[in-house]
Design a protein that fits this description.
Elements lengths: L13 H4 L13 H12 L10 E6 L5 H7 L2 H7 L4 E8 L4 H4 L2 H18 L3 E5 L4 H8 L6 E10 L9 H4 L23
Antiparallel strand pairs: 1-2, 2-4, 3-4
Helix pairs in contact: 2-6, 3-7
The structure holds flavin mononucleotide.
Flavin mononucleotide binds next to strand 3.
Length: 191
């Protein structure tokens, strides 16, 4: 049984409410909800305020199928039920020292978007299982100046029964390591 209790009573419930489902209903995500999520991403901090993130997405337009096609097969099956499908990229043409954190900054933007989605009652599932060539084709992004990081889907949670049996048992929030495995007071990293 997964223990989903926050160890601190001060931790906001949004962090535990967020998890990555694979079952999505066909209920659309509204333009206002999408605006709110991308606006949340917009305010993410980044090194020298470089804002290297790029989100390419579609709902029911012509961009949807190429994006879905770029998802690896093990993701495409369940992901195709979600009303919003997308790819997250980072700009690579940054001065050396900022290039070092472009993925860090872009991941933070993805998390801002995800937490805003959670607060709107929506779910986001990020997926690294993406075919990079197909993702470049889908987005038309320049290989010289961008990198494809992940795919993502956004939507309302759906009926678990619609998932293939093998995925039904995985359809639940997961546990985490305790903080003492990754937090080191005093600054010396041990273990
Ligand atoms: C960078 C990244 C890549 C991921 N790739 C996949 C993927 O290809 N397929 C998938 O089903 N889930 C993928 N996930 C979801 C993780 O498996 C999930 O976040 C993790 O198991 C923790 O579960 P939770 O998000 O439900 O808390 C990915 C998550 C991240 C952050």
């Amino acid at each position: 049984m997964t223990d989903r209790t926050a160890r601190s009573p001060l931790t906001n419930s949004v962090f535990l409410d967020r998890w990555s489902p694979r079952s999505f209903s066909g209920t659309p995500v509204s333009a206002e909800q999408l605006d709110a999520m991308f606006e949340a991403a917009r305010w993410t901090p980044s090194w020298m305020n470089n804002q290297p993130w790029i989100f390419a997405y579609d709902t029911d337009g012509p961009g949807r199928e190429p994006i879905l096609e770029s998802f690896m097969e093990f993701n495409r099956g369940w992901a195709s039920a979600a009303p919003v499908v997308g790819l997250v990229l980072a700009k690579t043409e940054l001065a050396d020292f900022m290039a070092r954190t472009r993925d860090f900054d872009t991941g933070a933007a993805m998390m801002s978007l995800t937490l805003q989605a959670t607060m709107l009652g929506l779910s986001v599932h990020v997926l690294g299982g993406v075919d990079l060539d197909a993702a470049y084709d889908a987005t038309g992004a320049d290989r010289e100046t961008t990198e494809i990081l992940c795919g993502f889907v956004i939507g309302h949670r759906g009926d678990i029964a619609d998932l293939p049996e093998g995925l039904q048992e995985k359809e639940q929030p997961s546990d985490r390591k305790p903080t003492d495995e990754f937090v080191f007071k005093g600054g010396r990293v041990t273990g």
